[in-house]
# Entry
Amino acid sequence: MDFNPEVVERISLKIEEMGVTVDREKVVSKLKLLVSEFGIPVEEAERTVTNELMREYNLTGPGSQSGNTSELKEISDCQPDDWVTVEAKVVSLSIPPSTAIAQKGIADDGSGAIEFVVWEKAKANIPELEERKWYRFESAVIDEFRGAPNMKIHSGTKITLIDEDRPLIPTIAQIANLKPGVASVRVKVMQDWETRHDQMEQTGIVGDETGTIKFVTWKNNNQEKLELDKVYTLYYSTVDEYQGRLSLNLTNAMIMREDGADIEVATGNSSVSGVFIHMGSGSGLIKRCKVEGCTRALSRQNYCPVHEIQNEFRYDLRITGVVDDGQKATNVLIQREETEKLSGIILNKAIEIAENNPLGLDDVFLKMQTNVMGRYVTCKGNDIDGTILVKDIEIMKFSSERHASLLNRAGESLGGAE
Amino acid sequence: MSTSGNNGQARTYMREPARRVFATEFRESRLQFKAGDDEFSPSYVMLPTGERSNRIFICGIMTQKEKKGDQNMFYTARIRDPTGLFFINAGGYQPEAMQQISQIEEKAYVAVVGKPTVRETPDGSVFVSVRAESVTEIDLETYKCWVDDTAEQTLNRLDAFGSTDDSINAKEFYSTNPEVFRTAVFDALKQIEI
# Structure
């Protein structure tokens, strides 16, 4: 059996709560069929088996059980597994990712926005949804997809067009309070990174008064590119969660630029003290693209991810590394000035080494490594998505006061043992 | 396996911190375990003062550097700290550390980042060593900083001994006497000239 007996217990209890006795063996055999024979994920099978049993015993679903589904609900109150009725405006439609899905988009009712999908199978019963129109969705199901709530429109959902344009002001969320789902934010563009993927249009960091977040725009519908240091309101961007970190997906967002505005972004002054324990391969002397507005690092073959082969370039110094205090390892990014201070190698010297040495850039890397690895440092700067952009670095010195107080601490607690 | 805290841990990749430990404590390590059953779950060596280590950071004087093997060449060396010796090695899977060791002369102060390993030798004794990831020559000043840092972190572990899950496990497995390690810390500190 490749599923947990708890699942059987959970299903049985759920059914028994409604006043029917369930044969555990029956539950097991149903589950086994789905999981072992058809290879269906256990969570999915659990739901299917529960529904199947409820139908068998003529029980009503949890949604309709908890009162009237035709009662109007606000999107911001919708929870996974709810059967809901909402009145909302379709604010955007996007290309369905699968042939099983007829339409995909975002609906907003003023309290919040949610992604929705219309199953291909449900298409027959409902009108084709159009952007910027209001609809009443009856008996839609709220589901969870990759941690974000999602409204499913199935063959039992009734949709009626509301023939009036109601005023709608999207709620602007703060970055610190974002959750997976759909959100509108007003932000300043803090960083514009090299894209690491062919399909990626743009990626970087945006921030508001409460924090910063990574953003990604995928190539598909000529989305507007964000410009560094400008302020934008990003309506209906998708908040994704990946490995516990949130990011904004702007591929289908509505982007409004605000000229002349500025936001004081909360970056938080972070500081980390510890050993310089790892130096990343992008460290040392690097070449940057000289095309105006582009400062991307070139690869060894002088290839810029955007402007391709560049024979003109500008040298720069940087260190990407890890500072470790014995309890936690923190990524740090050190720009030229502080790199020179830490490594004792200034840019001109590094260029000289690289150009007069058969190992070239590698030689600068190795020399830098010898000078920084294993050293105790204190880095201060802005914490952006877990990496500290170091503004100031200090090499720690041996302190005789600290030493004396440690001697006291060790000696004192020894007590009679000494 | 033998420790708690392996379920419900976030899937996020977090670099394992490098623990600070003196040779005298490190060489007493025996308990090796994996957190989780996954192929990629990190493996740890439990330090006798009660903290799991997947990586350690040590400093000291390098001695008895030796090149071994022909086809699969590797280096071994010893690192002397104020309390005793660490055995380090670096083979084909640690090319960076191997090159670094080959270029550093004996008697130099070095900083080593590496993975702790405990293995049983064919004759039944236990060999505790460090598989080096990186070895760098450092100055005396950095070495002294490390001694203070390691003293402080060892004392922190001893102060928390018996109150954390890891240290309760360590206590049960090693029957650690905290006084022994406190004395070692004190002696290590005394050897540093101010």
User: Anything to note?
Assistant: Residues 49 and 157 of chain B are 6 Å apart (CA to CA). Chain B has a mean pLDDT of 88.
